[in-house]
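thread: overnight batch results

M.L. [08:02]
morning all. the overnight job finished for the chain we discussed friday. pasting input first so we're all looking at the same thing
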Amino acid sequence: MRYKKGQFYIENVSAEKIAKKFGTPTYVYSHNKIENNINNFKKIFKTINPLICFSVKSNSNLSILSIINKFGLGADVVSKGELIAALKAKIKPEKIVFSGVGKTIEELKFAINKKILLINAESENEIIEIEKIAKSRKKKINIGIRLNPDTDAKTLKKISTGKKENKFGLTERKFLELLNKYRDSKLINIICLSVHIGSQITSHIPYKNMLNVVDKIIKKSKFKFKYIDLGGGMGIQYKKNFKKLNYSKYNKLIKSFLKKNNSDIIFEPGRSIIGNAGYLISKIIYIKKTNSKNFVILDTAMNDLLRPALYGAVHRILPSKINKTKVLKKHEFVGPICETTDKFLNVLNYQKINQKDIIVICDVGAYGIVLSSNYNLRPKPPEILVNKTSTKIITKRQKLNNII
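M.L. [08:03]
and the structure it wrote out:
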């Protein structure tokens, strides 16, 4: 994205043109940005040659998943629905990993029928159920076991997944206990050690700590894992001066780890592939002026983009047209929903804006539309894919008749 002659463009299409053609609010994705993100990710970890399984929970649009497949990526899924979507996008079953703490029996059976690469088990009860299915099918099933490394990812508390108080994975003691119990099973084949410590990680240090824990456990277990699934969690730059993850340092850490542990690496990136490729085009309904601030009331609400209300996440909000007039006052960008938490950003000294102006909320490609809802009986926005000068509807705007 860039400004051209004072107007905001996504590839070669202006935000104003998108708003006029498709209305607001509207999610927009840049094909070029997705492609660049994938190619850069592959380039960074080229010497490791990992299996890259896109995290479908970050964005499950079929057209997006088809692009993911086009560039040779697999999928990390956490539900039957996500698995169906990945398969419908023609992602190969042997490149699909099924994660999550609460897979139902139906979901496990479905995944096994589709012959996916592996199921990452997170409890002994889950392993027992997989064994039952394996026995009834008279086949051996590939699984991973997820370790909880008790590693602080130094990220938002609500998206931390690798500390002992989080529900994910197994403690070191329980992990080793189950590994010893099932390592010679005739029904399951343990091929993977899985670990994931959180999202929006911007330092290589938590990954270093995680790798140290994994290395120690592998030594204790004396077990040869075909795969080490390191999860994802790589952060993106939501704010202008935001710290970026040093991928080069993380790559070196993994290469050092692999010198001692000869396994294939699995990654599960989501946000780092799709996050900064998405935008939410919105319109200003009203500007309500008070003594302390101006409330900029948008036609976009927390039902369209939940991250700020749910996590306190920050997304840049940019005008679709630039002018040089600054208003020396606090601006609070809010939605129309009847909740105090339906707000997006506070900005000092924003440029002069008016009712009906178009604005752009940035970096909403991950955990944007997938977390949307019909709260306040509001229809979900459409999704548009931009490729150079072309625009394509990849999900239609919901109609009230379809949800009432």
